[in-house]
Amino acid sequence: MKYSVLLLIAFFFSTFASAQTGLRGTVKNGQGEALPFAGVLVKGSSKGTITNAEGKYEIVLAPGKYDIGFQYLGFQTIQKSVEIGTGFTTLDATLEEQALRLAEVQTKAGNEDPAYTIMRRAIAKSRFHQLQVQRFNARVYTKSSFTVVDLPNLAEMAFRKQLKEAEREANFKVGVPMLNETVAEVSFSQPNTFRQRIIANRNSQGDFLSPNQFYNASFYNPTIAGTVSPLSPKAFAYYKFEYKGTFREPGPDGKVVEVSKIQVIPRQYGEGVFRGTIYILENTWAIHSLQLETVNNIGISITIRHMCSPIQGVWMPTNQRYEGSGTYLGVKAKGYYIRNLTFSEFVVNPAFVEDIEVTDEKKAPPAQTLSKSDIKGKQFDDLVKKQKEFSTKNLRQLVKEYEKQEKQARKNRKEDVTVVRDDSLVVDTLARKRSNVFWDSLRSVPLTTAEIKSYHKADSLGLIHEIKTPSQIASGDTARRDSTKKKSTNKFSPGQLLSGHTWRLTKQSSLIYTSPLARIEYNTVEGYTLEGALNLRYRAKVDSISRFRQIPLGEWNIGGTGRYQFGRKQFVGYGRASYQYKTTLLSVTGGRYLYQFNPDNPISPFLNSITTLFFEQNFAKLYQKDFLNLTVNASPFDNRIVLTGSLEYAQRSELTNYREDIKPWINWSNRTFTPNRPENDEVASTAFPTHNALLLNLTASARLGAMQYTIRNGRRITRRDNESPLLTVNYRKGMADVNYDFLQATINHSFETGIRSRLNYQLSAGAFLNDRQVYFPDFKHFAGNQFFFQQGDAVSSFRLLPYYQNSTAKRFAEAHVLAEFRKFLVTQLTVVRLLGLKENLFVHYLYTPASKHYTEVGYGLDGLIPQVLPFFRVEVISQWQDATYRGLGFRIGTTLKFGR
């Protein structure tokens, strides 16, 4: 019976496949060479497709007569008539290179290139074209291919066994493309709502989902992925333009349109700008097509091709192609991503009609020019009805006034105007289970021969993994084996004591064990140390926003950390219990542990272990604390404010090095280990007796400006590029054996000063309002550094400042400024920018009663070893006190943080 059903299903699908009708064929150039990713359009409808890498296309159409358009960037668009009967009809096309004619206004000596008046109009209408689209629904087919071309010899030698296993189990091999196909139903509605439903997904490396997120990229935006668009209002600061000619082709409703070819020439090529060609439609000044190239911050070259088609008079990018190639960390790879849209619903904003004439006031001012008062408060469509011709400046003002009115209308409707993008992604439960027949009915770009072979191998591997012998089926061994395999991760084995492990106890609870071998450290106070942890996590309730995002509404964590000090021959440790509800966290911690005097850990334990053992420099200075701490952290008002409060009772003790005759691994003749008691210019001695301290610590942080958010699957996310300054106020109160009041304020800000250029600063000031009894652990400490390797925050860290020499119990002021430049000194050379190197200048200043206006002025070059170790930088720093030069230093740095 079961086999009869299978035969019936197979017969149904074969009948369905044979019943399909449509077009297929090949698109070539005049020399007979295939044109990959050419556009194939069905005139009078929103249907269309693109050819594959072999120039072949296929599109499902009902029987009837059709006019089919074929287009390819740089070639003449042609149109052919065809009648489709039963089955698939073959229709091939040969395209000839586009012949350009020069406009009569070709430049004379001293005249401006005609490209500039074209681009001024296109830039003025860029936002207009975006607002034309009220909403749409579309089916989107995407295909991506990623190929690892070459691996470093060391990697191939070290991981030869793993690479063989990956080829056998996951269909991965150097030189073989990894494919991913996705069919999605996408909808958009103004001003910022995108909905995406994945209905089919297929991957040649296994049955897993990897939908691409490169939807809705528009060159009408000022920037695309941080790169300045040629249609940005700031475009003339970054680009020069050259007019290359004009051609004609059939447009919507049989009308002929004229298209101008504009060469886009960056003033300085590199990261953040494009170069290439953009085609602009005359009179409408919309994008007809483009081919632009850029390079990202790690040196990967990216080429973008868009071809637009008229959808109800609006030219939309229905055919998109992205290609990338380059080397990163020694791995050479290439890939492409194509996207094809078929619209099922398309609604044009009635306020934005396409009969508006835009004049370039620099060439020929319009008959009537509007003032700001003429525009303010007026309805966009009312002004358009009265006046059909506008200057580029007036049009920009009109669109800005329209958006202002729309935003106010949204406020009146109680909509959240701080949300600048609202995205959601839903995956159909059958998306990864679609049959080949189903894919053949949906796929708008046919597979190439190599891609078919790759899928066949992936399907064969999947079949091998699923095969069960008759005896296994009869005995149920397979089911038991699968069940045992799933549960094996929760079984205890002695090896887990060495490696650490997470045991999943129930759906809501986990036991997390961190092996002591995972954290072996060394310092002159404790000697060698081993530290392990055990933590029980329980999620009381989970709010499922989507299958990809689950937010715990109530989460408990209970655990402890133990540390053995071989030098002191003691155990220390602490326990912690916490409960989190949404954005509020309550925690209780208590025990005995060792801490650096600066609670921000200016040198990580890992790095201090290296400096101590290899360089005979014990920078970390520690004290012991027996404590009980209660902390509350909350983020009310949609995370606009962060509040933290803690109350701690502690007994604090000074410590010494565990031995006087400690020997490093490498004995440096000009160095010796220093005592654990820090040196300080403000006090004669930093010694302190064992004492008790009751400490109240309150911190509040808030953005000084309107916050902006994006929503992804219902989750609100603060935009990282928010340019509002962050103000933080901290108050500390010391009681019991200590007696002081400390107050400080800090402001952080980072904002763009140009393409790939930023200015970052941090200003901070504070004072001990009451300093009746202040011990060294309570001093205000600063982010110093005494090692040649600089880690941590590049903005707020000093480069040459001793860790504790300038700590104060009085008052302080500090300033940190770091300017990042895309183009400064050596980056004036294009080849240097293409390697991904960036330059920066920085100034660090500190005032305390004893610091003598300490100042550092430095220069840094980011990307020390391009494409291999791009996150390292080299710096040169001059040191000053009271405006007197004190010396020069060098640092190798990274923004990565090691340890804790």
List its traits:
900 residues; alpha+beta; Immunoglobulin-like; 19-stranded mixed sheet; 13-stranded mixed sheet; 17 helices; elongated; disordered N terminus; disordered C terminus; DUF5686; DUF5686 and carboxypeptidase regulatory-like domain-containing protein; coiled coil; signal
Quickly describe the structure:
Helix content is 17%, strand content 45%. The N terminus and C terminus are likely disordered.
3D architecture notes:
It comes from Spirosoma flavum. InterPro entries: CarboxyPept-like_regulatory, DUF5686. Residues 1-19 form the signal peptide. By secondary structure, the protein is an alpha+beta fold. Among the domains are: 18-99, Immunoglobulin-like (Sandwich), CATH 2.60.40.1120; 114-353, no CATH class; 355-413, no CATH class; 678-894, no CATH class. The protein contains 17 helices and 44 strands. The strands form six sheets. The chain has a 19-stranded mixed β-sheet that branches. Strands 14-15-16-17-18-19-20-9-10-11-23-34-35 form a 13-stranded mixed β-sheet. Strand 24 (501-504) and strand 25 form a beta hairpin. Helix 2 runs parallel beside helix 9 (392-412). The chain is elongated and about 95 Å long.
